[in-house]
Each structure stands twice: as structure tokens, then as C-alpha cells.
């Protein structure tokens, strides 16, 4: 079995290339994985693609098995599904999810590979890291049955948050986005959709995931008295205007930052990373979530395709496929 492999590297602003990589025979406690499909995280990878990772966040932004340093050149990615082709007998031939850059074949510790449930196809399993982020956002926000909830920003994480909240008894969830095409996605997920001009007011809870100042203003406008706005967007180095005038103080609103690097305090003692990701994978058994998969590109074509993929508005989870 060959030890050779290929990996995607971001090498300069708006430029990527495929470089040789190694996939050595696994040692004890390791396994070798042949990639089936990986997901492009449009929000994070567009910041990397354009060289906009802030100096202060370059260490915190490092992904598992990343090579190189920000801004460039850097091998990056974190949504990988593959099949175990060499390793412990109990995992041989299994489809697994792991955090790894876009690469055709690689060797990792066996503890980092999570078997994908038989009820979840590999294409949908690439959403596992996004689902974990959405889970943590819900844990931070603590939605309750009957809540009126708005989710501003219909990217993958925003849609997953809306879908999770919509499964609670009695909740009324509205996904808010400027893209008219999100209405079809919301319908597939079983939730309501509106544009910002028709966003609901007086909500018990609001999530913001549009990564825009306009979206944050809409989210604050949706919040009812003493409600919380959960901020899920990461803006990189871009400054953001927060509209704290108007009714912000009289409404006694709270803005809460949520991100997956630190788990909600109420869950932190009992929910290590592996348990969270196992739950995220199991939740992906719903075929309605296929609405969040917006296309695929062969790995060999990825450098040429990235400009359109990362700059294209309206894209959800675009997958990379491997030979």
C-alpha cells in the first residue's frame, strides 16, 4: 500500500495548490484513512483563503493536523470522512469522521476517528463539526419549549441551530436571511423563513450567524424584553458596528458570545469532545439535512474551483470528493 498522498494548501491570498503529503503505515494505536469526502467550511476557510486570520487568533485557530502557519502557506480543513484502510481490526473498513485537512490519505491516532453510524451516509457526515457547533450554541442559549426563536443568518450553522430548536415542543422558529433561496431550505427543514424586513419582533431568544453588522442589527431588533442574542458569527479581523442605541438598554438585552472552542459551562464537566461529536453524528440521521449540502467538487479540481466556491453567496456545505 502506497504511503504517498496529496493535500490542499492555501499558499497566498486567493490562491491554493495541491502538494505531496505523507500517509505512513500506522504504528500501534494509529490508523490510516483513505478520504471519501470532506466539507469546505465556507466561513472559516474564506477568511484563510483571503489571509484575514487576525494575529491574535493564529494559535487558537490552528486545526488538528494543520501544517504551516497563518497566514500562508497553510494546510487546513476540519471536516473529513474516510474509510479505515489499515489499523485496529475493530475499525478496519469502517467509515469514520475526523478533524483533518483536505487530503487524499492520512495517518492519525485511532482515538481521533469516530465511526459514522450506519444510518448516516458519508456525504451527510461531513456536517458533524457544524452540528457540534450548533449543539453548543443551543446549550449556551438554553431554549425552552414554547419559545419564540429567531435565527438570523441561514448558513450551515444557522440552519442547524434553527432545526435543533424547531424540534423542541411548542417552539416557533423563524430563519431570517437576505437570500430568497433560503426559503426552500427552511421548508425542507420544517421551519419558517423570512427576509429581514419581515423578521419577527419580541422573540424570547435570538441567534445571530450572518457574520455581518446588518444581520446583528436585525438580530437585536428581533429580541424581546430582557431577551438574549447569541452571537455565533466570527468576523476575523473585520471591525463590526454593534447597534447599542435605540431600545437596546431600555429592553435590557444581553449579547452572549458562543463558539465551539469552549463548551457551555453547564455541560463542560460531563461532555468531553468525543461524546459531543458522537451525539452530533447521531443527529445527522435525518435525511432532511441533505438540504444543507450544496454541491461537490473533485479534489484534483479544488484549487481552480475555490475562487467561485468561497466567494459565492448562498453556498451552504460544499463537499470535496476523492478518487
Automatic annotation (TrEMBL):
<dbReference type="InterPro" id="IPR011032">
    <property type="entry name" value="GroES-like_sf"/>
</dbReference>
<dbReference type="InterPro" id="IPR036291">
    <property type="entry name" value="NAD(P)-bd_dom_sf"/>
</dbReference>
<comment type="similarity">
    <text>Belongs to the zinc-containing alcohol dehydrogenase family.</text>
</comment>
<protein>
    <submittedName>
        <fullName>Zinc-binding alcohol dehydrogenase</fullName>
    </submittedName>
</protein>
<keyword id="KW-0862">Zinc</keyword>
<keyword id="KW-0560">Oxidoreductase</keyword>
<keyword id="KW-0479">Metal-binding</keyword>
Amino acid at each position: 500500500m502506497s504511503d504517498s498522498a496529496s493535500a490542499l494548501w492555501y499558499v497566498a491570498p486567493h490562491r491554493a495548490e495541491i502538494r505531496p503529503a505523507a500517509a505512513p503505515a500506522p504504528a500501534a494505536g494509529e490508523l490510516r484513512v483513505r478520504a471519501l469526502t470532506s466539507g469546505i467550511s465556507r466561513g472559516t476557510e474564506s477568511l484563510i483563503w483571503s489571509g484575514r486570520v487576525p494575529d491574535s487568533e493564529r494559535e487558537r485557530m490552528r486545526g488538528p493536523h494543520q501544517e504551516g502557519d497563518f497566514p500562508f502557506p497553510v494546510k487546513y480543513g476540519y471536516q473529513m470522512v474516510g474509510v479505515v484502510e489499515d489499523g485496529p481490526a475493530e475499525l478496519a473498513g469502517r467509515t469514520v469522521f475526523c478533524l483533518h485537512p483536505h487530503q487524499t490519505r492520512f495517518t492519525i491516532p485511532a482515538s481521533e476517528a469516530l465511526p459514522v453510524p450506519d444510518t448516516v451516509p458519508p456525504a451527510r457526515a461531513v456536517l458533524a463539526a457544524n452540528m457540534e457547533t450548533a449543539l453548543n450554541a443551543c446549550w449556551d442559549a438554553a431554549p425552552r419549549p414554547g419559545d419564540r426563536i429567531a435565527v438570523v443568518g441561514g448558513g450551515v450553522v444557522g440552519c442547524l441551530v434553527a432545526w435543533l430548536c424547531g424540534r423542541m415542543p411548542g417552539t416557533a422558529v423563524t430563519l431570517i436571511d437576505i437570500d430568497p433561496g433560503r426559503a426552500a431550505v427552511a421548508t425542507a427543514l420544517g421551519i419558517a423563513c423570512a427576509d429581514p424586513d419581515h423578521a419577527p419582533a419580541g422573540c424570547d431568544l435570538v441567534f445571530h450567524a450572518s457574520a455581518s453588522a446588518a444581520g446583528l442589527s436585525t438580530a437585536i431588533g428581533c429580541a424581546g424584553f430582557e431577551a438574549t442574542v447569541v452571537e455565533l458569527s466570527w468576523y476575523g479581523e473585520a471591525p463590526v458596528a454593534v447597534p447599542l442605541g435605540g431600545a437596546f438598554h431600555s429592553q435590557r438585552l444581553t449579547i452572549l458570545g458562543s463558539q465551539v472552542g469552549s463548551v457551555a459551562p453547564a455541560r463542560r464537566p460531563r461532555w468531553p469532545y468525543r461524546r459531543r461529536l458522537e451525539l452530533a453524528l447521531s443527529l445527522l440521521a435525518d435525511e432532511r439535512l441533505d438540504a444543507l449540502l450544496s454541491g461537490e467538487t473533485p479534489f484534483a479540481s479544488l484549487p481552480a474551483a475555490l475562487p467561485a466556491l468561497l466567494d459565492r453567496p448562498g453556498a451552504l456545505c460544499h463537499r470535496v470528493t476523492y478518487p
